[in-house]
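User: I'll paste a sequence; please echo it back and then give the predicted structure.

Assistant: Echoing your sequence first, then the prediction.
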Amino acid sequence: MASIYNKGSILYISWYDSMKSKRFNKSLKLTDTPKNRKIAESYANKLQEKLSSEVQTMRRLGIKKTTIKQTFEHFLRNNSEKNVKTIKDYQRFYKKFTEYFDELESATSIDKIRVEAWLMEVKKLPLQKNSIFGYFKQCRHYLNFLFEYNYTQMFMINRDVKPKSEIKEKITFSDADMNIIFNNLKDKNSNFTTLIYLAYYTGLRSSDLLSIKVEDIDIVNREVKYYSPKRKKFRLIGFHKDLVPVLQNRINEIDQGQILDYASVENLGRAITRFFDDIGIKGKGYTARTFRKTFITLCRNCEMDASVVAELVGHEHRSTADRFYNNITTLVMKRELEKFNRPPALKTETYSVESTEKDSNKSELVKEP
C-alpha cells in the first residue's frame, strides 16, 4: 500500500512495487500542511491503483516473480550444450548487464525503458561496433528467453536504439606475407609448424583443428575425421598432398592424442599473434582466422567447386540438393584440392619424410635439394 509520511517537515511517499519486488521512497517536495497532505494522499491513491493494476496484469499474463540471477541460471541451463565460446559470450554479456541491473531484483524490472537505457550506455563504450553489437545480440537472446517463460512482460526495442553491426574489410594474407610466414617456420617446433600448415591448407576453424587426433588421420588415403564443436557434427574430409610430410612428422613425434598441443582456442590464437609480432607483420589485421579467410579466397579464385569448398571448411550448404542429397566424397575433395597451390614464388622448399613407419628410428622433416 502506498503511504505518506513526514520527514523533517517534508512529505514523502513510500510504496512497494510488486513488478520489481522492491520498496521505494520518494520526496514529494511538499511541506507538511493539511492542504498538501490531501494532495499527497490523492497522489498515493492513484499510485496504488496503478500498482494494483500492474499486479493484475502480471497474473493475467502469467508473469512469474523470479530474480534476474535465477532467470539467467535457467537461461544457461537451457543453452548448456552450446559451444564453449557461445557460453562465454553469454557470461560476458551478463557481467556487463548486471553492472546496470541488480541481479537480485525481480526479472520484471527488466522493461523497455531500462533495457534501452542500458543499450545507450553500452554504445558509449570504447569498443568496436561489432563488439557492441555482440552485447546487443546476446541481450536479444536473453530477452526472448524471458518473454518465452513469462519472466517479464514482452516489449520491443526502439530501432534507433539498437546497435548496428558493421561489415569488416575482407583481410587475407598477401603473397609476400605468406612467404614471410612459411620462411620463418624452420626454427619453430613441430607443434606450431603443424598448426600453420593445417590452418593454411585446410581453412578449418581453430576449434575444429584442436579436435583432430592422431588416430583420426589417414595419411595413405589423405583423409581426416574430426568433431566440429560449432556444428556439433563428426566430419570426414580429404586433405592436400602438401600436408602429408608435415603430418607424418608430427605423428611420428607424438604417436597419439591431439595433433595440436594447445589447451584452448584462445591459447592457439595468442601463439599465432605472437608469431606475427615476432616476424614483423603486426598491425595488418591478421589473426588466426585469417588463414580460414585466405584458404576460402584462394579456393574460389582457382575456381574450385563452391559446394566442395563449403564441405572442406565446414560451412552449411545453402541449396536443398547439397544439404540433403549431394554426398561429396573425399575423392572429389582431393581432386578439387589439386587446384589449390601456394603461389610458385612462395614454394621455395618442400619436405619429405625418411620413413613412414613408427619404429625406433622415427623420421624427421628434411629439406630436399
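Residues 352-369 have pLDDT under 50 and may be disordered. Strands lie at 3-7, 10-17, 22-31, 217-218, 223-228, 233-238, 351-353, 365-367.
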